[in-house]
Amino acid sequence: MIKEFTKRMLVLLAAVAFAGTILISCGSSEAPAASAEAAPAPAAAKSTLDIVKERGKVIVGVTAGVPGYSAPDSEGVWQGFDVDLGRAIAAAVLGDPDAIECRPLSAKERFTALQSGEIDVLSRVTTWTATRDSQLGLNFAGVNYYDGQGFMVSKESGITSLAELDGATIAVQSGTTTELNLSDYFRKEGMDLELITFEKNDQASAALEAGRADAVTSDQSQLYALRTKFKNPDDFIMLPEVISKEPLGPVVREGDEQWFDIVKWTLMAMLNAEEYGVTSENVDDMKATSTNPNVKRLLGVEGQIASGYGLEDDWAYNIIKMVGNYGESFEKHLGAGSPLKIDRGLNAQWADGGLQYGMPIR
Question: Which positions ≥6 away from 71 have C-beta within 8 Å?
Answer without folding.
Answer: 63, 65, 78, 79, 80
